[in-house]
Amino acid sequence: MQAYTYISEGKFELVEKEKPIIIHERDAIVKVTLASICSSDIHIKHGSVPRAVPGITVGHEMVGIVESVGAKVTHVKPGDRVTVNVETFCGECFFCKKGFVNNCTDENGGWALGCRIDGGQAEYVRVPFADQGLNKIPDRVTDRQALLAGDVLATGFWAAKISEIKEEDTVLIIGAGPTGICTLLCVMLKKPKRIIVCEKDENRVRFIKEHYSDVWTVTPNVCEEFVRKHSEHGGADVVIEAAGADSTFRLAWECARPNAVVTVVALYNQAQTLPLPDMYGKNLTFKTGGVDGCDCEEILCLIAEGKLNTEPLITHTYPLEKIEEAYELFENKRDGVMKVAVECEKRHD
């Protein structure tokens, strides 16, 4: 089968690999119908994810059809259309039972697919702990509608969930890339008084204005002043940092009111400074880290009910054999790209 593979730092390549097989009785083999490219894949390419293993198939955002299951898999069966969770988790350890599935203590726990074990930018993928990591797609939901549910939409849902958003709040989201937009969609479910999105890219600002007309936008250079002017208590009640640029971590806490929640979901290329003397007395609560992606079933229900719609984010579609072109487009942010769908099924022309 064809599989897009991490060869070495700076180099991915589409190569032929053996089709995966069931290794453990809790595994499933999924025929991938659609995959997507994530910024984390770009981080792997450029060596910013030290735990990523050269030789693995990349990709951790995908949907497909279950082809076979191990003897202890009961939640899905061959023929089921499924989303694949960004994380693998056993469901049994201390962290899993607390809902902190990103910190699953199993050797395959946390972000493994497309990082430490073969992922899904391929024709097939092996999914460990299939009962936890696969969710059936409702009949009335298409593959494209479900594509982002297991990763970037799960991240946005988790960010909104942990940010303690109330209806009287002003919420600032920094970054209007795919993670920022998915976070926006999930914040909108909380119905806060005001949502402000900070973004410098004109195409992304235009995207917000076109699809989410009630959301306010601002550029980074005037963000702090704008937020103070349009909030009641000297800053945003909740700030969600989804950009990951060198300047956006500081901007996040500067725009927060005293005693606010600052949630950081961005992945940075380099270490950020926490200047405690500068922020002393603001009494901020920081929430950081990788997504606990265990709400996919609820997310799929919200999609089926028409309450979440990420399909407008999929701006481009490529076949697997042209995935290098898709990466070039996505990495260089050309042609107004937001997310790319990669068709992984082998075509029979």
UniProtKB/TrEMBL annotation:
Domain Alcohol dehydrogenase-like N-terminal: 25-138
A Pfam family annotated for this UniProt entry: ADH_N
Record GO terms (molecular function): oxidoreductase activity; zinc ion binding
The keyword Ion transport belongs to this UniProt entry's keyword annotation: no
Signal peptide region: none
Record bears the keyword Kinase: no
Cofactor: Zn(2+)
Assigned keywords, A-Z: Metal-binding, Oxidoreductase, Zinc
Top-rank lineage group of the source organism: Bacteria
Family recorded in the similarity comment: Belongs to the zinc-containing alcohol dehydrogenase family.
Name recorded for this polypeptide: GroES-like protein
